[in-house]
Structures are given as C-alpha cells and as structure tokens.
Amino acid sequence: MNEDLDRLRLARTEGVGPILYRRLLRRFGSAAAALEAVPGLARNGGRPTPPTVPSRAEAEREFDLAARARATLIFLGSPAYPPLLALLEDAPPVIAVQGHPTALTGRGIAIVGSRNASANGQRIAETMAEEMAREGLVVVSGLARGIDAAAHAGALRGGRTVACVAGGIDVPYPPEHAGLQARIAAGGAVVSEAPPGTAPLGRLFIRRNRVIAGLALGVVVVEAAQRSGALVTARRGLEAGREVFAVPGSPLDPRCRGANGLIRQGARLVETASDVLADLPCAPGEGLGLLPGFSCPDRLREPPPEPVATPPGDSAEVALARAQLADLLGPSPTSVDELIRRSHFSPAAVLGALLELEVAGRLQTFPGNMVALLAEPGH
Question: Is residue 301 assigned to a domain?
Fold first, then answer.
C-alpha cells in the first residue's frame, strides 16, 4: 500500500505527466526515491520553488473517494493494468476503474464518431457494436452522446463494453448518461485517469481519446466531422500501431467528411461488423515484439516490467550539458537522439539534464522521444 500511495503522489505531482512519470521511475527505481529527488531536480533545472507534491493524506483521500465511487485504482506496472494500454508511451500512470478490470484485458475494438450523429449513423454503430460483442470483442467508446452512446447500447446487448470518461469516475458526463455508465460498469468497465471529482474540461477529452485508442486493437470511425475528437482518436490509434477503419458516408453531410477523409488517407473502408472482423489484427502492428505469451485471440497476459534504476550522469557533466541544451532546444520538438548526437556529452548526462529541465517545467516531452523547450518559470 505504501508503494501505491507513493506512486499516486508522484502521478499527481505538479508538472509530472505520463511520460515524465515513467522516466522518473526508470531513473530512481521507485516512486519514493523519485519523490525525494523531485525538489532537487527542479532546483537544478532552474525552478525557483519546488513543485507541489500531494501529501500522503491527500493520496489516501483519493483512494477513499475512488472506493466510495465503487472504483479501483490500478497502477501502470501492476498485473491488473491493461497490457495494450501500457504499450502507449504516454500511458496513464494510474486509472480508476468501475466494474470489472478483466474487461480491459480482452480484445478491444473502439467505435467513435459524431455527437450529433444521424439516425442512420447511430443505427450502424449500434448494430456493429452488438455483432462484434457477440463475437467476443470488447467494444470501447467514450460515453458521449451520439455514436458513442449507440455503440455502448449495442455492445450491452451483445456482450461487454468499456467506457472511457474524461472527468472523474464519479462525475458522469453528459449527466443524462449516468444510468448508462452504471449499466456499463455492471457488465464491463468504466475508466478514468482523472482524480475523482474532476470536472470534464475540454482538454481532458483529448487525453481520454488516447485511452480509447490504447485499449483497442482497432478504431472504427462512424460519422466524424473534419475537426473532431473521433479523428484525434484515430490518429492516436495509428501512432500506436492500431488498425483504423471508417464507415463511408454522403459527401453532402459534413458529419461524414472526416470519415471519408480517413478512407482517402488509407483507412480500411467498412460497412459491417464482418468487414471489421476480417481485418482486425491480433496485436498492435508495432507491438508484436513487446507482447510475450500473446496468441490470438487470447487476452494479453504479461504486465509491463517494473522499473529498474538507471545510473545518473556525472553531476558536473549534467550541469554543463544543461547549459548547452538550452541553446540546442527551441519551441519546435526535437529528437532526443539528435540532441545526443549534436552535443558533446554522454547520453547519461544529456538525459539527466533533460530530466532536470522537465521537472523544472522548462521542457515539454512528446511521444516519439521528442522534446521542446518552454519559457522559463516567471517569464
């Protein structure tokens, strides 16, 4: 329990996102050691005051709030953590799960689309979801109005479904879907990476979309405008090696332009559940080598390995590297490998300096081992 409390405190520490969380665990080997090191790292990186770290009492309170919502907190690296989701570079350090965590380890298929969906679009999503659930797939969606709600409803008739929510697990959104969320939890699972009580703000929906894609082997887009969260989910699916499918629609309907555009860009055109089942892979295209023991269609069995502490670079060399990196970096993302090649310091020193800058809030990290410099605190 102590390690879980420390992991939760680290995950909720100011400025610590999913990628930095993993780096800190790899660097220090445990959450307790990382928490102890955070103030010094931030100071070395140029932050005048240490980041805010939740107290043990605050972490215990989050556990209590999750329990009151009948949810379980599951940490990255634990056997119960969804193995497909763990393959994401920015996998959530902790998720709250209502219902049955085993629903998160099955073969998942995401169905997403427009909130103001047409009757035809909703019927297609509902029928597809029901038929794929009857074939043993777990249908994943975002509990939103329109296509999401239709997919969940169809999947509930055929088998299991998983809802990924943007706000706290105890804050149903939209409010009229509170009953649907309860039904999903009764037979499947509801997932959130936000602390209980968190209001579902706009930026959280973008983060939620990567969780939808991360829990699935493929993403089906049914009716999506050219600028929509469904297309974000599809893009995150592509980045993670998931298959992307799209249902074609009328070129006269703006709700179909995003899905039609995906087809032009190479997404698989599908009209029925059978079309999806024919091309759904058994594992992510980029993750086959990371899934020992996996055989289609069994669920993934191996949890991600526990972090092992990595030796730090020499402190004097790290300080020199930090000064040079401030010149090499800019607001546009740059590859860490490129920074190592262009600097005259050891990889350990460069990585150590980047870690200090990130903890100080001066560096932003992106999937693909890319980083960009932010303005110094106070500027």
Answer: no
DSSP state letter for 166: S
Q: Are residues 92 and 211 located together in one domain of the fold? A: yes
In a domain, residue 76? The reply is no
- Check whether residue 133 and residue 225 sit in a common domain: yes
Q: Which candidate, 327, 320, 329, places its Cα nearest to that of 349? A: 320
Same structural domain for residues 177 and 241?
Answer: yes
Question: Are 106 and 138 in contact, with CB atoms under 8 Å apart?
Answer: yes
Domain count for the chain, please give it.
3
Query: Are 65 and 142 members of one domain?
Result: no
Helix (H, G, I), strand (E, B) or coil at 137: coil
Q: Is the pLDDT confidence value at 284 over 80?
A: no
Do 204 and 333 lie in one domain? The reply is no
Query: How many angstroms separate the CA atoms of 307 and 290, rounded?
Result: 16
Among the listed residues 208, 141, 212, the one whose alpha carbon sits nearest the alpha carbon of residue 181? 141
Over the Cα atoms of the chain, what is R_g?
21
Q: Is 341 exposed, middle or buried (0-12, 13-18, 19+ CB in 10 A)?
A: exposed
* Residue 207: pLDDT over 60: yes
3-state class (DSSP) for residue 100: coil
Nearest-angstrom CA–CA distance, 39 and 36 = 7
**How far is residue 224's CA from residue 163's CA, in Å, rounded to a whole number?**
19
Residues 6 or more apart whose Cβ sits within 8 Å of residue 18: 89, 90, 91, 92, 93
Query: Residue 234 is part of which domain span?
Result: 85-285
Stated pTM of the model: 0.89
Pair 54, 173 in one domain: no
- Say yes or no to pLDDT of 298 above 70: no
Report residue 302 as tokens: 């191996």
**Nearest-angstrom CA–CA distance, 359 and 277:** 44
CATH number of the domain that 220 lies in? 3.40.50.450
- CA 183, CA 160: separation in Å to the nearest integer? 10
- Is residue 133 domain-shared with residue 274, that is, in the same domain? yes
Instruction: Encode pLDDT of 35-68 as tens digits.
Output: 999 999 999 998 999 999 999 999 999 999 999 9
Residue 113 to residue 146: CA distance in whole angstroms: 7
What does DSSP say about strands 218-222 and 108-113: parallel, antiparallel, or unpaired?
A: parallel
- Other CB atoms within a 10 A radius of the CB of residue 265 amount to 11
